[in-house]
Amino acid sequence: MKFARAIVPLILLATAARAQQSPAPWLKETFKSAKLGDDRTIYVATPANYNGTTQRYPVLVLLDANDEPQWTAAVANVAFLSNRGAIPDLIVVGVTNGKDRTHDLTPAATGSTAKTFPTAGGAHAFTDFIVDEVLPRVRSHYRALPSTILAGHSFGGLFALDVAATRPGAFVGIVAMSPSLWWNDSTPARDYATAIAKLPATTRLFATSGELEPPIDVTTKIFAARLDSIKPPSLAFAYHYYPGDSHGLTPQPSLIDGLQFVFAPIALTRSPMTALGPHPDSAGIVKAIAETEDGYVRAARSLGLPDKFPELQMNNYGYGVLQAYKMPNVAVWIFRKNVQSYPDSPNVYDSLGDGLLAAGDSTAARAQFRMARDVAVRQGKPASEDTLKKLAALEHPTAVQAGKAKP
To answer: Which of 45, 239, 369, 376 has its CA 20 to 30 A from that of 134?
Structure first.
């Protein structure tokens, strides 16, 4: 019976928190890179419910993962956003720096930049490493979808824009956080914008800068203004400015806002379900469910994601209708939709049992609680204690009441 704990009158079910779970610890993997010729280390953080499902997840690749506070905050913020329904659950892959971060993250240097950074220029090889080695490794070891987002800060932001300009289609989303566009006498600010505007619009691009990082703020605004002026209508691009933020502070808000932008097409925080008034009729709820599903399917396909509506979100809608609107029959209809979509999930049967119980059909409810138990057992998992308690109360009500009466 996984559902949002907080239900409020205007059905903010799409934004309600799911049952709290501790984030899974990340794994550390070190392997020999054929592309780079040395050992490289990545971190992999899976969603909290990863081991309890067979679901596949989109991937976020985050650069500079050896910056421990930034990496830890990123993993926590991804968990928070997904818990609130703002983004889907993600596998987060942290790519740590090698012996020469500047070399790995920068394109070829020219002019005064070449004199200051003589080892620069390894960005394209590092892109090959991520695209051709890291991602295939992650997809072979974890239940990862092809849909992947790249996020980088500072030189990492410069790198992310270089990837957007030179490797179209490699990532469905790019989050360039305070990109070092002062590189090569600021020429990338215009050159990248020009190149990105000419490419097929297959990537959602988000760039940021802060007030207290003048060289980056100025050049990022130049980049954003030029791209806005020449981009085709089909290109999804947004720029965000953070007043009062220094270079070291922009990564956290940038990643939060950037991920929400990338996944905005499938976000359910402004779905037809959230627009329901305080006293909708059953026809209005059914219509809102259908429109929400249709919109989600179209958006998911555009991001290369599975187009099946999320189980827990539909579950939330069912419990919202049950608790906030007191419509058990409509809730039962919603829960049955989830059973049809996720027949291998014990949770959907448990939720349907709750709906049937609220509708006064204890016989049918008992059958669903049994299904929840049996599906879990067939999968080699323990049945939910909550399910077993409800089942016992229906099968042996006298014994349960006697047990409660004991001192």
So the answer is: 239
Q: Indicate whether 257 pLDDT > 80.
A: yes
Which pair of tokens denotes residue 244? 């009062």
Nearest CA to 74 out of 201, 66, 32 is that of: 66
Q: Is 195 exposed, middle or buried (0-12, 13-18, 19+ CB in 10 A)?
A: middle
Residue 20 and residue 382: Cα distance in Å, rounded?
19
For residues 322-343, average pLDDT: 97
The encoded tokens of residue 74 equal 């990123």
Residue with tokens 């058990």: 328
**From CA 9, how far away is CA 118, in angstroms rounded?**
61
Residues 6+ apart with CB under 8 A from 72: none
Rounded to whole angstroms, how far apart are CA atoms 4 and 349? 17
CB atoms closer than 10 angstroms to residue 172 = 22
H or E stretch covering 237? strand 237-246
Instruction: From residue 59, give the alpha-carbon distance in Å to each of 87, 124, 172, 304.
Output: 12, 21, 10, 12
What gap in Å lies between CA 110 and CA 183, rounded to an integer? 9
Q: Which CATH number fits domain 33-266: 3.40.640.10, 2.60.40.10, 3.40.50.1820, 3.40.50.620?
A: 3.40.50.1820
Spatial contact of 259 and 81, defined as CB atoms under 8 Å apart: yes
pTM of model > 0.90: no
Q: What angle do CA 151, 196, 295 make, to 5 degrees?
A: 70
3-state secondary structure of 152: strand
Ranking 109-123, 194-208, 244-258, 333-347 by mean pLDDT, the lowest is 194-208
DSSP state of 1: -
For residue 340, give both structure tokens: 């049809």
Identify the bridge partners of residue 17 per DSSP, sorted by sequence position.
Answer: none
